[in-house]
Amino acid sequence: MEVPWLLVAHGSVTALVVVSFLCGQWPIFEGTFVQSINHFLTFGAYHYLLRFVQAVCGNGAKDLVLGVEQYCCDRPNPILQVFYVAIIGVTYFIIVQTSFDYIPGYYVSGWHRYLSIIAVAVGAILFVLTSFSDPGTVTAESVSQYVSAYPYDNVIFVEKECSTCKIPRPARAKHCRICDKCVARFDHHCGWMNNCIGEKNTRYFVAFLVWHFLICVYGALVIGFILAGELKERKVIYILTAYYGIENSFSGLFPHVAQWLLAVHNTQILLSVFLAILALLLGGFCAYHAHLCLTNTTTNESFKWQDYIMWMKKENEAKANAAALKASMGSANSDAHKAPPSKWRAFFGRSRRPIVEPVVKNNIYDRGMIRNMCEVIVPLSERKSFSRRKSD
Questions:
Q1: What membrane topology is annotated for this entry (predicted)?
Q2: Which of 128, 136, 246, 334 is disulfide-compatible with 198, CB 3.0–4.6 A?
Q3: Do the beta carbons of residue 323 and residue 315 sit within 8 Å?
Q4: Are residues 303 and 362 in the same domain?
């Protein structure tokens, strides 16, 4: 049996492209070829495409491409929603066509057929809830309640008016340029959902991420058990050791078992690898958003805090350097008539760096993990106290 190297190469390249596109900007990949591939996929390829279209077809074709980009990136559109439905539908269809014949199997019972349908259905329901629910739109009627619900911290949120909606912008809110509306407790605009993620649908979005992570893990494990059952039922290990004289050890059997699996069950191998990669990516997103929920922070606020802390560090360093320079000039004037210090003391004196005041992140919205999670599960706008304020 020959290893289908073309299939292996295709799977490896696909995994590299997917990981580079989704994770290339992570700090762990900084300065690596993964970051370079991400830059090419997200910027370089499009830039070269525009230059090629302009050179071959003229400025009219370039304007057409720019118009398509504006439609896809600067206004609500269902493209990624359709793509998500296609991914789920095609993947599940392939699983049904190629793997359900092995259910029930040696390690997999028959009820997994029905459990998989329930899992996909729940994921579809969470997708619909996240995509079509109100994220928490701030209107002239509800702005006063949101202002009272979320106080300004006067650090990253200050009292000001939304230049587009012409209403006061509550703390933690932001005007989404794509949806063209102010969203309370704004997290981000999700193209996959064609909707903003805000105060009212963060719970659905996080549940969507967690559920799809579990689906991918579940699918990869079930397919793995199917393959293990095939090895057991076909007695592949026994045949390799008894008839071909292969050493009964992991290092001796692994190449031959992998070769047999790639030759006979290559579709299941690709599906399991695909689901495992998606599980890793979704696991990272789940961990990130779980951290945001537990600390009562949004993605928008995390970027604001990063900018604020970086700016304050520069300010504190400038103040410390100015104070150190002033102190050194004063000491130089006072020590002008004194004997010069020893070379060693002067050397170590110059090596001292000014003390920089540390920057502390003071998130006034963090009220403890339990209360933070309760705020995500039951938003403030859906509580009785909020309704009473609205009626008043």
A1: Multi-pass membrane protein
A2: 136
A3: no
A4: yes
Partners of 188 in the β-ladder: 197
* DSSP 3-state of 296: coil
Alpha helices (H) in 265-382, listed in sequence order? 266-294, 299-334, 343-350, 369-377
Task: Indicate the residue type of 326.
Answer: K
Give the whole-angstrom CA distance, residue 217 versus residue 222. Answer: 9
> Is the peptide bond prior to 358 cis by the omega test (within 30 degrees of 0)?
no
pTM comes to 0.81
Instruction: Identify the three-state secondary structure at position 61.
Output: helix
Total domains in the fold of the chain: 2
User: Six-digit token pair at 199?
Assistant: 């105060």
On whether residue 313 sits in a domain, the answer given is no
Domain that holds residue 48: 13-74
How many residues comprise the chain? Answer: 392
pLDDT in tens, 17-68: 777 877 777 767 778 888 888 888 877 888 888 888 888 888 888 888 888 8
Q: Are residues 97 and 64 part of one domain?
A: no
240 belongs to a structural domain: yes
Residues 156 and 63 in one domain: no
Active site residue 176: no
Q: Are strands 168-169 and 195-197 parallel, antiparallel or unpaired?
A: unpaired
CA angle, residues 300, 386, 154, in degrees to nearest 5: 40
Indicate which residue of 23, 182, 190, 374 is catalytic. 190
Do 165 and 41 reside in the same domain of the chain? no
Q: Determine the 3-state secondary structure of 104 from DSSP.
A: coil
User: Looking up tokens 């699918």, which residue turns up?
Assistant: 219
In a domain, 264, yes or no: yes
Distance CA 19, CA 38 (A): 9
